[in-house]
Amino acid sequence: MERLHQRQCRLLRRSRLARRCHQGRQDRFRSAVDRSAAADGERVGSASVIRDRVRVSSLLPDFPWDTIAGAKAQAAAHPDGLVDLSVGTPVDPVDPLIRAALTSVAEVPGYPTTYGTSELREAAVAAVARRFGMTGLGPDAVLPVIGTKELIAGLPRLLGLGASDLVVIPEVAYPTYEVGALLAGTRMLRADGMTRLGPESPALIFLNSPSNPTGRVLGVDHLRKVVSFARERGAIVASDECYLGLTWGAEAVSILDPRVSDGDHTGLLAIHSLSKTSNLASYRAGFVTGDGELIRELLEVRKHAGMMVPFPIQAAMTAALADDEHETVQRERYRARRTVLRKALEHSGFRIDHSEAGLYLWSTRGENCRTTLDWLAERGILAAPGDFYGPTGTEHVRIALTATDERIAAAAARLTT
Ligand SMILES: Cc1ncc(COP(=O)(O)O)c(C=O)c1O
176 lies in a domain? Predict the structure, then answer.
């Protein structure tokens, strides 16, 4: 018990420290802006200089989707139309049960709470226990988020991390982990195994199993090693479990599975999105759960920033979490599309790596991904190049299963003739 408490203190020390350093950082920031404004003021006027100097977007990578505009134009020129398998956006309609829950409270005028309704948090606890065997959670340890992308992009900052902290992300990764590190100004390392870290003590480790883009699933042993490493070094583990409900054979387990956590959630966060499993990408609906103290800290900060999930969306989420049938129907749609597409890709010379879960086929023709992108575009198919996801993704393309049955059949026909 005493050891447990010490560990929690260590994990939160950074955010408290960060708070103490905050004023100092703000002062440094202001004086840098003032200095540059004074230096350049005469030339262009100080107001525009300040805007130029603090442009946060310049710290971030170029938006990668712009780089495939040419391939998209070529694919769209196909006589039978574009098959867009680049973005993993749902195409099947939101289940009527969820829509009814949304409209049932459409007349409510008041502000929602950041913490969400107790019904929503109870439904989330019941759903993750029923669907994924995640036990030992209470509704107090659930916090709704406005889609999980915003949480991921903000998490290092929300946890008070800064320049001296290291954030670890997977080698090939969903780009928003890097964005989160850049926005908080932390150091960042891509690593799939903890040995790459040497003696370093990271502040935060992002995991993503099943992975976007590779569909790789991390087993219980791997996850246990990460948890034990994180506990030795005082790191927080944020496990992005967006695709946990979309497995095609291999078992995918949560970081909060008792076989991984031994029932101790200290320092562990599991991030769950309803975008893919319940087709709720347009609603912006997710939640984070795990270590109660970390959840309370996130809640406190998010309350001040007004990061509230709209009330009708909370009602829709509650209904979606209480019902497994619509999820099963959707999973089976994707399973069928995956079978058709995988067969066609293999028939036309692709090798599919990993992809044992999730919504993507991580595919290669053993050449640079941009060459493969052009090859697909000639056939009217748009994919996402692997170099979007990290330097080791350059020989793969990510092919999404998120298209209608008709478009998937069209892609398969083009690949096999
Ligand atoms: C790995 C991963 N995490 C998080 C997200 C964000 O999902 P959302 O913001 O819709 O909850 C996505 C979306 O594609 C994703 O692939």
Answer: yes
Distance CA 124, CA 119 (A): 9
Ligand 1 centroid–CA 228 distance in Å is 26
pTM: 0.90
Q: Using a 6 Å cutoff on CB, does residue 402 contact ligand 1?
A: no
Beta bridge partners of 287: 144, 272
Range of the domain at 314: 96-322
**Half-sphere CA count of 139, side-chain side, radius 13 A:** 11
User: Which of 322, 347, 373 is the last residue before a domain boundary?
Assistant: 322
Domain count, the chain: 2
- Mean pLDDT per 10-residue segment, the chain (417 residues): 46 44 36 37 49 78 88 97 96 98 98 98 98 97 98 98 98 97 98 94 98 98 98 98 95 97 98 98 98 98 98 98 98 98 98 98 98 98 97 97 98 96
The burial of 380, by beta-carbon neighbours within 10 Å (0-12 exposed, 13-18 middle, 19 or more buried), is given as: buried
5 alpha carbon to ligand 1 midpoint, in Å?
A: 32
With the most atoms of ligand 1 within 8 angstroms of its CB, the residue from 87, 91, 179, 212 to mutate is 212
Same domain for 391 and 271, yes or no, is no
